[in-house]
Amino acid sequence: MARQADKLQPVPVWLGRLRMELRQLAMPVLMSSRRGLLSVSFEVPLTPLDAPPADAQVWQFWQRPESEHCLLGLGLAHRETASGSRRFHHLDAVWQGLRGGWTRISQGHARPRARAFLGFAFDPGFQPDDAWEGFENALIQIPRLLVEWHHGCCVISFNCHLDQAGKPEQLFSRWMDDLDLLLKHTETAEKSVSSCLIREQPSAGSWQRQVADAVNAAERGDLDKVVLSRSLKLRFNRPVEHRRLLSGLARRYPGCNILSVSFGGDVLLAATPERLLHTSAQRVHCDALAGTLPVDARNRDADMEAHEHAPVVSAIRNALDPLCKELSVDECPGRLNLNNLAHLYTAIRGELRPGIRAMQILDRLHPTPAVGGMPRKQALEWMGQDERWQRGWYTGGFGWLGDNNQADLSVLLRCARIHGNRASLYAGAGITRVSDPQRELRETEMKFEPMLRALTEC
């Protein structure tokens, strides 16, 4: 249902023309009996932002600096949630239904496109508590205003669900408020910052005892690997400036995906090195990222490669194999260097069988042994008994879905949850029969370090 409108005049008059043409293009659809989603898209000369607008309350932000690709969503046009063991099946059906009834109007060179943000918790049984207020177990969200920058081109889309849009004038007013918010650049003054540690969860000593118990279980053959995690809770002398924090992470870690999401309360942000799933048409790409070393380590750790990294590669291969006509796996892991630490890394690529969709792959992949363990059932049972705190979205995933079987989803690692002047940081380590509790504790400290440094400098 795509239409082509006349090309906008160049700046400085593009903003006025956009407001006028948005009304002209959207009003006939808003006044019709059509149902489902509506998007009106424009190509505009807007320079990329490195963080959501300062006054935004609800947003989704995804950026891969090295590929010059960024998506920013403001407000809410439509949301669908799910939980339980079939959460991805449900959201897949929702997504297919939304795409089938989506009216898309484009202006100029802007291609009509469907985009949605997808986020989910680690555990399909997760129920939001005070620590994760506002974060659903799993959701697909269509923003009211979507901006996408890719290789120097910017497309802005105004979205609504026609069954929920309300009166046209109210909708136009909300769209203009979102646009004004996007174009408003607010600089934050530099301020000194200090922090104090409120709580480790669990304490370093308790966590090392958990690691020792997991090592004993692996030696008995109860499990091969389990990923145990920790949290640090910090308090600062002023509200954390999450926009400055986000832009700083993008500068320091251009090879990572930079993510941020807020549902009106807490802010979750991450600089994650692990791409869980990237699909386009019939191609799929997954990262096997497991095994952490100091960045100055000269050689790979043979025990780590055999007991921690190789099982992740094997599990991803086994998950993808029934879905692919062809599958290629790097013969030997490489090293992904990230400032203070390095990870063993193996790229896995495949050509999908006809009809295989991104969400079907996600259902088979998550959780990989890199964030859960193996055998999966035994590792998750161990974690359920031993981890006495809610991971929430940590080690879950966040990213976006698009047309032509496009998806780009990242594992939520190296992340922080911000609430006013408080921050919660998360880190974990894979435990096998060759693990040493003191060394694993140090690994989590290395993983905390980038976000701690960024927080104290923001």
From TrEMBL:
Domain annotation Chorismate-utilising enzyme C-terminal: ranges: 206-447
InterPro entries (alphabetical): ADC_synthase, Chorismate_C, IsoChor_synthase
Name of this chain's protein: isochorismate synthase
First-tier enzyme category under EC: isomerase
Entry-linked Gene3D superfamilies: Anthranilate synthase (3.60.120.10)
Keyword field: Isomerase
Catalytic activity: chorismate = isochorismate
Species assigned in the record: Thiolapillus brandeum
Stored SUPFAM superfamilies: ADC synthase
UniProt-listed Enzyme Commission number(s): 5.4.4.2
Protein family per UniProt: Belongs to the isochorismate synthase family.
Keyword Isomerase: yes
An annotated Gene Ontology molecular function: isochorismate synthase activity
Classification via PANTHER family: ISOCHORISMATE SYNTHASE ENTC
Claim: Cell division is one of the keywords in the record: no
